Amino acid sequence: MTANATAPTASAAAAIASMTGFARASGSAGTTHWTVEIKSVNGRTLEVRTRMPSGFDAVEAAARTEIARTIKRGNVNLNLTVTRTASAAPVRLNREMLEQVIRIAREIEGAGAAPPRIDALLSVRGIIESEEVQPSEEEQAALESAVGRSVTEAVAALAAARLSEGGHLAAILEGHLETIARLTDAAAGTAALQPDALRARLRQQVQALLESVPALPEERLAQEAALLIAKADVREELDRLRAHIAQARGLLREGGAVGRRLDFLCQEFNREANTLCSKSADVELTRIGLDLKATIEQFREQIQNVE
Hints:
By secondary structure, this protein is α+β, with helices and mostly antiparallel strands. It has three domains: 2-87 and 133-163, 2-Layer Sandwich (Ribosomal Protein S5, domain 2), CATH 3.30.230; 91-130, no CATH class; 165-303, no CATH class. It has helices at 57-70, 95-110, 118-122, 137-188, 195-210, 218-232, 235-254, 259-279, 283-303; strands spanning 2-6, 21-29, 32-41, 46-51, 74-84, 91-93, 128-130. The strands form two sheets. It has a five-stranded mixed sheet, with helices on one face. A two-stranded antiparallel ribbon has the order 6-7. α4 runs antiparallel to α9 (283-303).
């Protein structure tokens, strides 16, 4: 028996896996040849579909178990094709039927017809029967075992392909996190967040409240001033963004099936970026906030392919 599997080589440094991949394994035993093809695409959970010839139920059950053990998320399709090379099957002469045909031929011959030729007699359907050789239980069990090994090879090759693609994904995600960190630092360094600028802006807004007609009560004025201070201060949002960046980097280092947790972090990233933009009264800070939102969306799109 021979078997071989082909798939991209997995990167040794890959920590996360992509949900897309393809692999193939093939083998042969005597006159029987088979090919296993398996591919996976994005999915919220693990969903496995198989297509196999009849008589390979045990192989299908083992394949589902192996896939569930190796892959945690994605839509997986496995297809098994089995072909048998035509061989010289033994033939049997149906003597009973031949005697009946000869008897009929002699009756016709007695009526003046030409005697039948041997090739004409043998061409009558049913005279010569080919016997289909069925494999023994031992042979079928050996075949299923060999096909099962090819299935295991294909699943392993698919996992390697997903890890290889995951290595590329990790590099892209790290790049997006670096951009988010840089924009967060830029937001913290804008002139609008410097103490002098904040005080000047607050003084101007409080002065406008003092000059309002009718004049605001002192208690209401204090409330409005407190609201202005809270609205101008985005340090809490920036601190949370930095915490989310650290958590995302930790998940990428951890590896494994972290796609869902990264997707949840994206929602948190978006929440802070939206709040930053809504609090901003500065053109430069607003521009940074919009750049943050665009980068976070790119990060989210890539995460949809992480296991």
